[in-house]
Design a protein that fits this description.
The protein is of the alpha+beta class. It contains five helices and 16 strands.
Length: 289
């Protein structure tokens, strides 16, 4: 456990010790002949400060009487601390510059553990005495980053798609039947998000299946969409054993023609059909990760 030690003298230095590391936040000489204030703000390890810091501290203790006769000794000590702080600042520069960077003690020194890249799903593991960030590998049926059910993965298992565990409570129309084709013709994996944007842009005021999916949020993730024809095919392939396919058929975001859009009718991936856009069908939002 870390300990905090604070001692204050007329010529003040405040020292804090946390988990084997020493922090000098500020040193201000409170004497009548000087108003200078020195702030180091550096994190200094006990090894770096071992002998020299004790010498500096002893000098401060010996010269804490507030009179002009000890001015030169106080100034020498103050400069010594400042120089030491600057030297240690140079030694540790770049060792913790990004949010999430950490250090661990390897038995003789503090070693940097750089944070994983932003947007990556990673887990911290302790391997042979060394903490390491490693990518999360997903499998179909796992919980995804947002807590949904993973139904599609890439070959390395690091990326894929997840669906919310249950259908949205309300059935919905596909989009805007009166205005005809909206251009949401993508069917491949990876096209559902763009299809959804196109549908919502075409009829932003309508509470459509696409808008319900786009507005969905779970566990801080709000990038959900209505799956394309091929995306929902993977969903149907795995959904029977993962989450009851009980409210189908489901809307896809893939447009069929002016009046119809493609639907998924059962858990068989190839079992697709079409339905009039003003029909109210089940909605299951998905997201990519």
């Amino acid at each position: 456990m870390g300990r905090k030690i604070k001692k204050v003298f007329m010529n003040k230095i405040v020292v804090s010790v946390f988990c084997g590391m020493i922090v000098i936040p500020a040193w201000s000489a409170e004497v009548s002949y000087s108003t200078d204030s020195y702030t180091a703000g550096d994190i200094l390890t006990a090894d770096d400060l071992n002998a020299k810091f004790n010498d500096i501290k002893a000098g401060i203790y010996d010269n804490h009487i507030n009179n002009s006769s000890n001015r030169s000794d106080i100034e020498v000590n103050r400069v010594a601390v400042n120089d030491l702080s600057l030297r240690l600042g140079e030694d540790t520069a770049g060792k913790g510059v990004n949010s999430g960077d950490m250090q661990y003690w390897n038995g003789s020194a503090w070693v940097l553990v750089a944070a994983p890249s932003m947007g990556s799903e990673s887990v911290l593991k302790y391997i042979n005495g060394v903490p390491r960030w490693q990518p999360v590998v997903f499998a179909v049926g796992d919980r995804g980053p947002a807590g949904g059910i993973v139904f599609y993965i890439t070959s390395d298992g690091r990326h894929g798609m997840e669906a919310v565990e249950n259908d949205l409570p309300e059935l919905a129309e596909w989009g805007c039947p009166p205005i005809g084709m909206v251009g949401a013709g993508g069917k491949d994996v990876g096209s559902g998000a763009q299809n959804t944007l196109v549908i919502v842009d075409a009829c932003p005021e309508k509470v459509s299946a696409a808008k319900m999916a786009a507005d969905y949020s779970q566990n801080g993730y709000s990038d959900w969409f209505l799956p394309s024809s091929d995306e929902i095919g993977y969903f149907a392939l795995n959904i029977d054993s993962l989450s009851a396919f009980k409210n189908g058929p489901y809307w896809t975001s893939s447009e069929f023609d002016v009046e119809n859009a493609i639907i998924q009718e059962s858990t068989a991936p190839e079992d697709k059909g079409k339905a009039l856009k003003d029909m109210k069908l089940a909605v299951r939002p998905v997201r990519a990760f």
